[in-house]
Design goal:
The complex is a heterodimer. Helices cover 31% and strands 23% of the residues of chain A. Chain A is α/β, with parallel strands linked by helices. An eight-stranded mixed sheet of chain A has the order 6-7-8-3-9-10-12-11, with helices on both faces. In chain A, strands 2-1-4-5 form a four-stranded antiparallel sheet, with helices on one face. In chain A, α4 crosses α5 and α4 packs parallel to α6. The longest helix of chain A is centred in the middle third of the chain and has 17 residues. Chain A is globular and about 70 Å long. Chain A starts with a helix and ends in a 5-residue tail after the last strand. Helix content of chain B is 74%, strand content 0%. Chain B has one domain: MetI-like (MetI-like fold), CATH 1.10.3720. By secondary structure, chain B is an all-alpha fold. The chains are: A alpha/beta, B mainly alpha. Chains A and B meet through α3 and α4 of A and α8 and α9 of B.
């Protein structure tokens, strides 16, 4: 399945992010004006059209910040973001209306992403009206179609977000994201606040829509097992930097970065067979350091079990060790 | 389906409102005072006593069967004048709230949405200036500068009332702007007007209505205070505060001239406050 997806990947970048840095000033540090939370600290990646790029990382590693910066909710300190070859940061960080149509985001918390004082019909009408997808007298029909797409019954249009369940809310959020006929959707941990049974339903729905609507996803999660099943490529983040990017199969069979190895070896498994698939047990030590005081050199050296002298002095560069497999490590 | 839903909602709201029996009492008092204000001419035994009228034959009479609240020194029926006073008291509330609430809510909405910018600073610091002055003092100062009368007391109370709504809505709007549904509307490309009035405002309305219901009593009281010091309704048109201050000169001999207007104010304010509590119970989230 994954191999098939990799083959069909067309080599045309829909989004590419270059040397992106997003810093937030630390509250109350006016005297020492250089104190920043380095949420995203020099990130490069690209997404090909039709791909599902999985962005994985611990809490606080800057995954969501990347997503919000692409959407224009944060101002980057440095770097460029190209969408369909166009620099979207040039116009004083204001996103064009065509970008707002083509790129949508689904947030983690379906509870707060729908206005409790509107009914589903009003919620779904907004993108249709703003982007003039259909004429005024066809709005109701378009709302119905949007609900059909996520397989919700049409009478949901008259319900309010407070009267439906969490999974249904997330389906409505997805339906809303699809209303403007986007090309690219950012999914910011779309299932992590839901029941496991509903998670599977949402994931299958997303995969079905990906094929039907010819979408490209940036899928943010911290669930590595989930990533393995759905993404075409995986990027792993640690302290605002991407450590390793690889096609899914390579990522899970030949991880090169010690951090990736550590994470993969800590996935809980049930059977012996699965155990053999995993890299040898690497004991995970320590906690993710504060993004205000990033360790010198390679930011992972404080927890790395293969640390050599150079690691604490020099920050490694991203290198392409084999086609499509990028690693940021001195040892790779 | 929609109609059934509406009926269901109405029943739920009535249930929440009437759970506290005092709210129902409050509702009755509110309705009664509104009816009194509208049909004052019909209800009262001597409607002509609300205007210029002197009859010294019946002056200063203690409460009796013909004049249940007694008469004042000009021989005017106190009861009639009390009923007519409802008009002024209610009209000042209606005017003050219907002007100050939209202004206050609108400014609070803008200041909250543009939290941390110069728009926020200008609006909220101005509101703070108004809030920092004792409200009755401010109203008296404004009413005194203008020509004393109903209009200027309305202007005065309006001027001191809007910042409370601004501050309340400001607090809600500045936290709502970080909610994902507002972010999402921005990202979709909705207009500012849509975000302010369709996304944020509906979430603030229930607390605004609650505050309005609880404020009615206070506006009546402030109005009465202004008319007590002679800055409200001018004689011969009756007003609660003005009747009390007139009667106070003849205390304790003609006690009915003061006691009945005072009781009337207490009664109405109590009623509106019970009513306001009921509205709060009704609009509050959760059951």
């Amino acid at each position: 399945m994954n191999e098939l997806k990799q083959q069909t990947t067309v080599d045309s970048k829909i989004l590419s992010v270059k040397n992106l840095r997003v810093y937030f000033p630390v509250e109350g540090s006016k005297k020492s004006a250089h104190k920043y939370v380095k949420a995203v600290d020099g990130v490069d990646f690209f997404i090909n059209e039709g791909e599902i790029l999985g962005l994985v990382g611990e809490s606080g590693s800057g995954k969501s910040t990347i997503a919000y910066t692409i959407m224009g909710m944060n101002k980057p300190k440095e770097g460029s973001i190209l969408f369909k070859g166009e620099d979207i940061l040039k116009n004083n960080d204001k996103r064009s209306i065509s970008f707002k149509k083509d790129v949508q985001i689904v947030f983690q918390d379906p509870g707060s992403s729908l206005n409790p004082f509107q009914d589903i019909r009003q919620i779904l009408k907004l993108p249709l009206k703003v982007h003039k997808i259909v004429s005024k007298n066809q709005l109701d029909e378009a709302v119905g179609k949007a609900l059909d797409r996520v397989e919700l019954p049409r009478n949901f249009a008259y319900k309010t977000p407070t009267s439906i369940g969490g999974g249904e809310k997330q389906l409505v959020s997805i339906a809303r994201a699809l209303c403007s006929e986007p090309k690219f959707i950012i999914l910011d941990e779309p299932t992590s606040s839901l029941d496991v049974s509903i998670q599977a339903k949402i994931i299958n729905m997303l995969l079905k829509l990906h094929d039907e609507q010819k979408l490209t996803y940036l899928f943010i999660t911290h669930d590595l097992s989930l990533m393995r099943n759905i993404s075409t490529r995986v990027a792993i983040m640690y302290l605002g930097k991407i450590c390793e990017v690889a096609p899914t199969k390579t990522f899970y069979t030949r991880p090169l970065h010690p951090y990736t190895q550590m994470l993969l070896s800590s996935i809980p498994v049930i059977s012996e067979e699965e155990e053999e698939l995993k890299p040898k047990k690497v004991v995970s030590v320590g906690e993710i350091p504060s993004p205000v005081d990033i360790p010198t050199g390679c930011s992972f050296h404080t927890r790395c079990n293969k640390k050599i002298d150079i690691c604490s002095q020099k920050d490694p560069f991203m290198r392409e060790v084999e086609p499509g497999h990028f690693v940021r490590c001195h040892l790779a | 389906m929609m109609k059934a839903q509406f009926k269901e909602n109405t029943r739920l709201y009535w249930y929440k409102f009437s759970r506290n029996k005092l709210s129902v009492v409050g509702l009755c008092i509110v309705l009664l005072s509104i009816l009194c204000a509208i049909f004052a001419e019909v209800i009262t035994p001597y409607p002509q006593h609300a205007k210029e009228f002197v009859d010294f034959n019946q002056a200063s009479l203690a409460p009796c069967r013909a004049f249940i609240c007694g008469t004042d020194i000009f021989g005017r029926d106190i009861f009639t004048r009390l009923i007519f006073s409802c008009r002024g008291a209610l009209s000042i509330t209606v005017v003050v709230l219907s002007i100050s609430v939209p202004i206050g809510v609108f400014l609070g909405l803008i200041a909250g949405y543009y939290h941390g910018t110069w728009v926020d600073t200008i609006i909220m610091r101005t509101a703070d200036v108004f809030l920092s002055l004792p409200s009755l003092m401010l109203a008296m100062a404004i009413a005194a500068v203008l020509k004393p009368g109903m209009k200027s007391s309305m202007i005065a109370v309006t001027a001191m009332w809007w910042p409370w709504y601004t501050r309340q809505v400001y607090g809600m709007a500045s936290s709502l702007r970080n909610e994902y549904f507002v972010k999402n509307a921005e990202l979709i490309g909705a207009s500012r007007l849509h975000i302010l009035f369709r996304e944020i405002l509906p979430n603030c309305l229930s607390s605004v209505f609650t505050k309005m219901a609880l404020d009615v009593g206070w506006v009546i009281l402030i109005g009465a205070s202004l008319s007590f010091v002679g800055l409200g309704e001018q004689p011969p048109t009756p007003a609660f505060g003005q009747m009390i201050s007139e009667g106070a000169r003849y205390m304790p001999d003609l006690w009915w001239m003061t006691v009945f207007p005072a009781l009337a104010i207490a009664f109405i304010i109590l009623g509106f406050n019970f009513f306001g509590d009921g509205i709060r119970d009704m609009l509050e989230r959760g059951r």
